[in-house]
Amino acid sequence: MITLTINGREIQTPRGSTILETCQAAGIPVPTLCYDPDLRLAGSCRMCLVEVKGRPLFVASCVTPAENGMVIETDSPDIVEARKVILELLAARHNFNCQVCEKNGDCKFQDYCYQYGVKDSRFEEGGRHLYPIDDPNPFLERDYNKCIMCTRCVRACEDITVARAINVKNRGHNAKISTFLDGNLSDSPCVFCGQCVMVCPVGALTSKVSAGLGRCYEVEKVLTTCTYCGTGCTLELNVKDDKVVGVTSNRTVEGSPVNKGALCVKGRFGWDFINSPDRLTTPLIKENGQFREASWDEALDLVAKRLGEIKAQHGADSIALFSSARVTNEENYLAQKFTRAVLGTNNVDHCARL
Amino acid sequence: MAAEMRIVLRNADQINPDKIEDYVQAGGYKALEKARSMARTDLIAEVKKSNLRGRGGAGFNAGMKWSFVPEAPVKYVVCNLDEGEPGTYKDRTIVEKDPQRLLEGMAICGHAINSNQGYIYCRGEYPYVVDLLRRAIDQARSSGVLGDFNIEVRMGGGAYVCGEETALIESIEGHRGEPRFKPPFPGVSGLWDKPTVVNNVETFANLPDIVMRGGAWFASIGTPSYPGTKVLTLTGDVVNRIPIEVPTNTTIREVIFDFGGGIRGGKKFKAVQIGGTSGGFIPESLLDTPIDADSMRNIGATLGTGAVLVMDETRDIIDIVTRISKFFEHESCGKCNPCREGTFRAYEIMKKINKGQAAPADLDKLALLSRVMTKACLCGLGQAAPGPILTTMEHFKAEYQARLQI
Ligand SMILES: Cc1cc2nc3c(=O)[nH]c(=O)nc-3n(C[C@H](O)[C@H](O)[C@H](O)COP(=O)(O)O)c2cc1C
Ligand code: SF4
Ligand code: SF4
Ligand code: SF4
Ligand code: FES
Predict the structure, then answer these.
(1) Average pLDDT, chain B
(2) pLDDT for residue A78
(3) Which H or E element spans position B363?
(4) Is the pLDDT of residue B243 over 60?
């Protein structure tokens, strides 16, 4: 453990932690835009700047190791002034249309502008980008007029998905997140996993499937397991008025131990079938070549009865059970257990084995 | 009159740069032989004792930098020949006139840090220098002088920021030329995450003489805190637009009026900018300052690369600073917020001032932005970019006031 002083308070922290981690553990708030604990560090947004006594320059707390005896100020007037200037510089390029923005209420940039009282930008003159918003894909909206160039999307795409579909093109003020030759995502290695949407702190990357269906503060988030495959990723169904209107990631280890928030295109964007009128919502029993609706009790009783009859008549090995990769591992475990222990046969198989 | 003193340019125009035999005849590669007979720690101690400070701009003690390099199976020696600083042509001059000296210096460093692989990162606009270096490396390799030390040349693509050591490393690795945050410093984790010493051409070129004549000899030349000589490149409204090598206690006035021959066309001196585009502007009243890095820092200026841009009485400071702002707006890599957006806004405001359309509030805004950038940017580019603005606001305030819209 090392000891340092932050805002006049003496604080102990394990050797090897950064100043930001130390502050977070001690409950001292430090604003961050480019920092993401699951991604390679960038140290580029400069919102997390703090003053360290004896150092001529401000230091970015997210990438600076805490050292024994450091004396740190996280909210000195100079630091607050610098953060304000940085926010104003970003505000001068940001297309504020919070009234229709999908991220309203869940936007780090909006929050910090509020916190630091940035109503207008002193640097608002020319130089707006006016990038077209026209990526023709069914899943994600890319509006770089709201981008604050934190590169979290680039790092998520590279570090989590390893698709490397996007990177920064051009330099300076003209730097922009781009696919190769700035083409459409569908012509890039993009797999539409939406990890970039998950990490984007502002409304630059959002889900087209959820667009207009509800604000973050209107939905209830229900933690569940994705039904698409046996990997068992955890996700949050966003429920508004008893209807699923979106999927978001739970990024905690406890909430999402398998995938830590990462999803694939199906889990993140393929949920609209839930509200489809074509969906079966009750069991059907076929009688005289016709399906009729039945209750679960009735259907299960029928299956149990028929399985028992077949087993008595033809032996257990006349029955086989095929399971699916689209249910969870736990359900597959139960399926084989049921087959072996209840039905009494080893005739069990699974489509993922084919 | 002050006299030149040649260490790194000693062989300039005396030998054929394309013949290793000439260099060897002039005493070349004796220093490497001597260095290799020394224990590595003794060699580093000798370089530390010389107090040789980096000639690429930051002025960090070279021996000290080497001493931070940890033990590791693979380490690299990288020479910074990016020389993107406008008005600077010292590294090109050194290499054009005496390429073997650079190779010998790098090999000495290789022995000191126990590395057998060197890279020279050469400015993309110097293709003929790349050719010359490759020939020199071939000759050195076939004559066996380098032993097991291998050197390769890599070419830059013309980005100024790639002269910054970590952006340079990213570029050699084949990535976008953007600086990394520090720490870790390259000495601990640099090229391909291996310990890497990055030094400037002129820094390496001083090593053969330091090894041969000893650290104490070098430490006794010029200003004690920044000893040795410095190659300066004179440009602008000075009579002699030439490279010179002078001891570091030479004053700016001597540089301009003795070596430079004074101002062209019999005009009067107005200002000089030293160290490259980000250097502070120096008025007449400060010309008796010695050029060493610390004395320069004390007057709010820099020694930087040693570029000397002289401006006569007819020059328009505001227009020049506007152009400089444009340079930084163009060269900002775009990684960090204060520089990406700040250089753009600084140029925008400077254009406004230059056109006579600015109000006093614009000056305040520019000063605030400049102050923040100096302390908040990720790398030296953004931190130093406001230098010309801040120093001209201080020393040439009247020119700004006169340009305001009333
Ligand atoms: C924007 C920027 C550009 C730089 N360009 C160069 C350059 O062209 N050549 C150079 O030697 N150092 C340059 N430097 C300094 C290097 O980062 C580094 O400090 C230097 O190569 C170390 O060598 P030295 O200690 O021998 O000076 C630059 C720094 C910055 C911030
Ligand atoms: S959707 Fe996934 S693959 Fe496509 S750009 Fe985003 S992170 Fe990369
Ligand atoms: S799109 Fe979002 S995540 Fe990507 S750089 Fe812009 S603001 Fe950051
Ligand atoms: S200061 Fe400028 S050049 Fe340096 S990292 Fe930031 S944007 Fe890039
Ligand atoms: S959060 Fe530290 S620099 Fe962005």
Answers:
(1) 97
(2) 98
(3) helix B360-376
(4) yes
- What region does A49 belong to: left with phi over 0, alpha with psi -120 to 50, or beta? beta
Task: Indicate the CATH number of A97-108+117-207 among 3.30.420.40, 3.50.50.60, 3.40.190.10, 3.30.70.20.
Answer: 3.30.70.20
**pLDDT tens digit string along A249-262?**
999 999 999 999 99
CA-CA distances (angstroms) from residue B253 to A22, A253, B274, B287?
51, 66, 12, 5
Domain made up of B225-312: CATH architecture: Roll (3.10)
- Taking CA atoms, A272 is separated from A109, A269, A276, A326, in Å, by 29, 8, 7, 17
Average the pLDDT over B186-193 and give the result.
98
Residue A161 gets which letter from DSSP?
I
* pLDDT, mean of residues B219-235: 98
Tell me the pLDDT band of A325, cut-offs 50, 70 and 90.
confident
* CATH fold group of domain A216-274: N-terminal domain of TfIIb (2.20.25)
pLDDT band at A353 (very low <50, low <70, confident <90, very high): low
Q: Which of A81, A90, A151 sits opposite B341 (nearest CB)?
A: A90
* Chain B interface test: which of A112, A123, A177 (most B C-beta within 10 Å): A123
Query: Class for domain A2-75, per CATH?
Result: alpha beta
Domain B20-220, what fold?
Rossmann fold (3.40.50)
Residues of chain A found within 8 Å of residue B344, distances taken between Cβ atoms: 127, 172-173
Q: Is the pLDDT of residue B323 over 70?
A: yes
The pTM for the full model equals 0.94
Q: Which stretches of chain A sit within 8 Å of chain B by CB?
A: 41-47, 49, 56-58, 60, 63-65, 78, 81-82, 85-86, 89-90, 92-93, 122-123, 125-127, 148-149, 151, 167-168, 170-175
Q: Which residue has the tokens 């076939």?
A: B142
Question: How many Å apart are CA A155 and CA A136, to the nearest integer?
Answer: 23
Give dist(CA B240, CA A159) in Å, integer. 54
Task: Please give the average per-residue pLDDT across A111-129, as a whole number.
Answer: 94
Size of interface A-B (CB pairs under 8 A): 110
Domain B319-403 in CATH 1.10.10.10: no
d(CA A349, CA A351): 7
Q: Is the pLDDT of residue A329 over 90?
A: no
Separation CA B391–CA B393 (nearest Å) = 5
Give pLDDT, residue A354.
Answer: 54
B374 interaction partners in chain A (CB closer than 8 Å): 57
pLDDT at B205 over 60: yes
Amino acid at B191: L
Q: Which stretches within B99-200 are classed as H helix?
A: 99-113, 127-143, 165-172
Domain boundaries along the sequence of chain A: 2-75, 97-108+117-207, 216-274, 284-353
Q: Where are the domains of chain B?
A: 20-220, 225-312, 319-403
Residue B1 pLDDT: 59
Task: Identify the three-state secondary structure at position A302.
Answer: helix
